[in-house]
């Protein structure tokens, strides 16, 4: 399927909606049945029909069709946030007495789900270094039902060899889930590498404008329908039609934004490589990175995140560098038009070290600004760093 077709036409049914060029926002909670027989049909086929917006809604449905096509899966289901999609995907695979193998250092709230939430319900979780696929095999037990991946992962952008991990999973009949948010649905398609459920925080690249939250799970029709009638309908983390519309609007420009972000990121990284104030750049797209060949093998292009380690041993200098930036915003989320930093030092208070990450690490997200504009901002902040 052509990418342009997916983003501009697929699922939109323009003829049904007055041939409107922009998709309609079907802002309704309810859909009426004309006869009791129709209602009987609706109740029996709730996963496929528009009956109640907590289940299905035409605007949300357009988004789901497009994301399933982008990820190359049969079906997809949208949620009100990325973490709702992560939680529903994970909960759909486990029950008390089961065992999960998860990568170390996933996204913060995925980590909470794995370390605190699942054990409360009798599910045991082992966290492994995902950069060696054999670690998944070694950690597996008779009751292992799920491998959870995030590639690249949060903050340190380490990769897992997706095809190797899914091969190990298939031998043991273990389900695999991946959080694909950092790669975007354009630059990595894990279902083609054997992953069962692909999750995105749509809040990030898919929305692309820092003005909406959403999540998505892509997978086989059978798996998605099972999630629909259990976790989706009972937990109720529904995506509103208006938010689905904002995500559809974001999708229209996804290839343009990703292409621009990829190029600018390469330019900013090249600049940072020459700075003595930068001790290290954590980014698998540098040829000297140990996972460079894996990045080239399983991703189509780089995206906009990397982390630098500042060349300093005082948190004061980290603070001064961060506070001196005038155009980079300091914020948690990413994927919008604006470039951001997220300093690990923000989790450090005097005498109270809350982070497992060194305070010298700063995560970057590169947005849509001109590279020269960003580099100028970094240059003046480096000059102020030493005080
Ligand atoms: C932001 C994020 C999430 C959570 O998504 P929300 O939309 O904020 O709920 C999950 N995974 C990754 C990798 C993220 O960056």
From TrEMBL:
Q: Does the keyword Transferase apply?
A: yes
* Keyword set, alphabetical order: Aminotransferase, Pyridoxal phosphate, Transferase
Q: State if Manganese is listed as a keyword.
A: no
One function term, GO molecular function aspect: transaminase activity
Cofactor or coenzyme needed = pyridoxal 5'-phosphate
User: Which protein family is it in?
Assistant: Belongs to the trans-sulfuration enzymes family.
According to UniProt, the name of this protein is Aminotransferase class I/II-fold pyridoxal phosphate-dependent enzyme
The organism named in the record is Rufibacter sediminis
């Amino acid at each position: 399927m052509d990418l342009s077709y997916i983003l501009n036409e697929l699922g939109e049914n323009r003829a049904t909606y007055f041939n409107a060029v922009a998709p309609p926002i079907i802002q309704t909670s309810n859909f009426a049945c004309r006869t009791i027989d129709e209602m009987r049909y609706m109740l029996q086929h709730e996963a496929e029909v528009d009956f109640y917006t907590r289940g299905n809604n035409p605007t949300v449905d357009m988004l789901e069709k497009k994301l399933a096509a982008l990820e190359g899966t049969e079906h997809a289901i949208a949620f009100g946030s990325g973490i709702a999609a992560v939680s529903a995907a994970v909960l759909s695979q486990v029950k008390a007495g089961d065992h999960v193998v998860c990568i170390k250092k996933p996204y913060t709230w995925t980590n909470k789900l794995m370390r605190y939430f699942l054990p409360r319900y009798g599910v045991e979780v082992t966290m492994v270094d995902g950069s060696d696929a054999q670690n998944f095999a070694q950690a597996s037990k008779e009751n292992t039902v799920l491998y959870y991946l995030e590639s690249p992962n949060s903050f340190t952008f380490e990769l897992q060899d997706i095809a190797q991990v899914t091969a190990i999973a298939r031998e043991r009949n273990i389900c695999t889930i991946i959080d694909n948010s950092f790669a975007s649905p354009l630059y990595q398609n894990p279902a083609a590498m054997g992953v069962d459920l692909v999750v995105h925080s749509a809040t990030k690249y898919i929305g692309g404008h820092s003005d909406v939250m959403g999540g998505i799970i892509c997978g086989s029709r059978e798996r998605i329908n099972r999630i629909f009638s259990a976790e989706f309908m009972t937990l109720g983390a529904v995506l509103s039609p208006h938010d689905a519309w904002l995500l559809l609007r974001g999708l229209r420009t996804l290839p343009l934004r990703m292409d621009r972000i990829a190029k600018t990121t390469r330019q900013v990284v090249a600049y940072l490589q020459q700075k003595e104030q930068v001790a290290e750049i954590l980014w698998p797209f540098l040829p000297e990175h140990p996972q460079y060949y894996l990045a080239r093998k399983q991703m189509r292009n780089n995206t906009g995140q990397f982390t630098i380690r500042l060349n300093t041993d005082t948190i004061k200098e980290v603070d001064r560098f961060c506070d001196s930036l005038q155009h980079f915003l300091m914020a948690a989320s990413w994927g919008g038009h604006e470039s951001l930093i997220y300093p690990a030092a923000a989790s450090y208070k005097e005498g109270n070290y809350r982070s497992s990450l060194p305070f010298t690490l700063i995560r970057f997200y590169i947005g849509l600004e001109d590279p020269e504009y960003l580099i100028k901002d970094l240059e003046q902040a480096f000059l102020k760093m030493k005080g």
